[in-house]
Amino acid sequence: MRFILHTCCLMLFAFLFASCGQAQTNVPCPRPYVVDDSALFVSVDTSYSFINYQDNHLIFCGDSSQMRRFADKFYRLLRSGEGNVNILQIGASHVQGGTFPHQLRRNLLLCAANAIANPDCDNHNFPVASRGMLFPYSAAVKCNNPFDYKVSRTYPLILTRNVYKEPDQLLGLCGIAVTAADSAAEIGITLSEPQINFDTRTIILLGKPTGSVVPLIKLLPDTTILHPTSVDTLRRRYIYHSQFPVDSFRIVLPCDSGQAFALTGLCLQNQQPGLTYHSIGVNGASTADYINKCPYFTTDLQLLQPDLVIFGIGINDASGPNFDTVVFQKRYLQLVDSIRRISPDCAFIFITNNDSYRLVRRKYSVNNNGPLVRDAFIRIASACGGMVWDQFTIMGGLTSMSQWQGQSLAQRDKVHFTRKGYQLLADMLHNAIFEAVVSLKPPLPPSKLKAPLSPSADTSTSPSRNSRPNPLYRGKRHRRSSGDGMPPSPQTNPDSMPASPDKQSDLSNPQTLQPANQNERHYYVFE
Length: 527
Prior knowledge:
Blueprint: H1 2-25, E1 58-60, H2 65-80, E2 84-91, H3 93-96, H4 99-115, E3 132-134, E4 149-153, E5 158-161, E6 176-180, E7 185-191, E8 202-210, E9 216-219, E10 225-226, E11 230-232, E12 237-241, E13 248-253, E14 260-269, E15 274-281, H5 287-292, H6 297-304, E16 308-311, H7 325-342, E17 347-351, E18 357-360, E19 363-366, H8 370-384, E20 387-389, H9 391-395, H10 400-406, H11 419-439, E21 449-453, H12 455-460, E22 511-512, E23 523-526
């Protein structure tokens, strides 16, 4: 009996000792302060001879103060896990289709997660991402939807877009609405991105009822019903909170006889620090459509408070022979002013139009407005201190769309791209943006910096980054940059470049940030 008691005591002591030892080795890892700048870039297919890869830079039209503020906020999030960074892309059919903006969103989130891997910890976590603003386009008939979320409906709803001559609904930031007028009306939303685990705890529904309709949220698969915890009829917002992450739900619109509800947008959020990439687009939309037909544009924009806006409106403004550059510039500056009233420190990137063709008498003819739009964007960016990504020149200039089509990068209409083409453009734009962000990153606080680690020391004393799990990921790791998309050249600070007295960029010699040496990686350890 004594032997049995003695053995049990020894076993209990050994268990407690092992538990204590395990507790010591699994001490929660502090916030990872190691930032690998090279992990922020993606590989780009450079096999196409007609693409001007050497022009894949942001053109700074004036000073870089706006982008520097964005870089400060971005690196603060990466280094300390504090704050929220919101990026908003606004466009037309190139954005509504979803491939172009979602490739940017995926690149941003996955590369940023790779960049903050801590070599001393296995349980490093990237700030949780939220999906942000979206719209259930395919709840209406013949309206295409982005592929990263699925939309279902009980029956087709009535569609209203800002391209209509006289929209029958008061539109907001999304520039589009679907209207339900039936007691059985429901819209299903399911996030279907396989690589990113979006964390949604707050659902904000935007819309206007006719009568006393109050929308409900039905969580799936357990069909839990959420009632709005807050209703702001002035701003047309219905806010719902869930205790658990949500990636599939249904919007219930119980409209009795004579009642209706016009849904103008959805915003999926959480209350944690992180990155959010919002994208809105309407097929066929122009600058005038957003200015004149979206009275709740700035009201909805208050939800996002964007730190960076990427403008891609213009292909429809310049589709005809009577394109007026003066009117185009005036309308764009109106949009910039409306956004600055909500986010005064917001940075702006303007994407020049892609090369395109017009169908005239059943024959395609090149749209010669491409160079005019390119020069107009330079002047717009110069007037507001923004940046230009010269997609037109990078593509290859006039008539280059035929070459893109010949390589299955563009569709037969010679205006839109294929999925492969959109992904290539998104990868190049991503690298151009982060070339600027890395070059403008804030200095490290002297009190925090302990010592730099050489890349060889970091990789030889710690396990591989890609071997450690991260809750942001659902699938395989994102491919890291091999440097293909950014030709190495000396790093240049745009603030050191001389500017003309009127701060207008010389169109023949625009200011661009040159990429840093891609072969160098910088690691820092904080105390």
